[in-house]
Amino acid sequence: MHSQRRSIMRLSAAFIACAGLAATSSIAQSFPSRPIRLVVGYTSGGPTDTTARMVAQRLTERMGQPVIVDNRPGASGRLGKERVATSPPDGYTLLVMSSGDAIAQPLMAKTPRDLEVGFAPISLAATGTYVLVVHPSVPVRNVKELIALARANPGRLTYGSSGVGSSVHLAGELLKVKANVSMVHVPYKSSADSARAAASGEVELSFPGIPGALPFLQSKRIKALAVTSMTRVAMMAEIPTLNEAGVPGYDRYGWYGMLAPLGTPKEVIVRLNAAIGEVVNIAEMRAALNQQGLEPQTSTPEKFAVFIQGEIAENARLIKLIGLKAE
Fold first, then answer.
1. What is d(CA 49, CA 38) in angstroms, rounded to the nearest whole number?
2. Minimal CA–CA distance to 255: which of 98, 42, 89, 44?
3. CATH architecture of the domain covering 11-26+34-127+254-322
């Protein structure tokens, strides 16, 4: 009797497992069957929103369903994260995250949705460097001369950023740490605003994204000394990296990627990963990203998970080192 009951239980368990596998396979095969929503935790017009809209357009063409950008600004991106984390794990509501999210997490004492454990990584989509620029009145021709000037005048030079705790802010702080210099941070509302401040002479230098810097570079209202990534940028190939220019090991850049709610079927994640990899590497898409100072950059879900963990850990170390506190 007991043996018969155990056999029935084993058969039932096997049936349930097979049924679950079949359901998951069915979901993946039919995905997507309705519109997909890309949630951006920031206002429209910013770099995360711009990247999301570029990717959404191509994904719509690739997947045969509308891909809609849904802006949920507020609480340093946390409202957007909450929206996605509490959505059904079916692949139809995704989070477009940025390098700023990997700063916000270690900066906040408590975060309701940790990026490492609260979401299912899909893929990186693009990366973008910053450019170190100075006002023409600053008497330097290169990074080594800037460092010498800063050391000779501790606390006299000011640098602009896109806000306290932003990627651009930490770009400046990393230079201070690695070059052993003292400069004063002046936060602005956006990267473009920090470039404008350098162009007007409100601050001596800043680290804007390339799109925000280009108009002022073209009008010679600012000078570019270096880019912040470890590799040079195609559209500014003549400009050295900070690593090349005298700050060994300096590497700071912005990036954008996508996450799904935890529990999203692996087959759906794989389908989305493949689609993102295809669309960002289309020649027209690559050119459009380049115009925004971005480069296509994709990864497997597993590598993206490791990347996010590494970014959060690195930001946490820098935040602790400089004593940065959330406002």
1. 10
2. 98
3. 3-Layer(aba) Sandwich (3.40)
**Ranges of the chain with pLDDT below 50:** 1-23, 112
267/49 Cα distance (integer angstroms): 27
Rounded Cα–Cα distance for residues 45 and 297 (Å): 21
- Sequence-separated (6 or more) residues with CB below 8 Å from residue 324: 107, 164, 165, 173
Residues of the chain with CATH 3.40.190.10: 131-245
Taking alpha carbons only, the member of 212, 211, 213, 235 closest to residue 224 is 213
CATH superfamily membership of 131-245: Periplasmic binding protein-like II (3.40.190.10)
- ω before 265 within 30° of 0 (cis)? no
Query: CA angle, corner 90, sides to 84 and 91, nearest 5?
Result: 70
Q: Which two tokens stand for residue 36?
A: 């997909």
**What integer pLDDT is reported at residue 110 of this predicted model?**
58
State the span(s) of the chain assigned CATH 3.40.190.150.
Answer: 11-26+34-127+254-322
The Cα 65–Cα 42 span in angstroms is: 24
Which pLDDT score, from 0 to 100, does residue 94 have? 98
Residue 62 CA to its chain's centroid (Å): 23
pLDDT for the residue numbered 307: 96
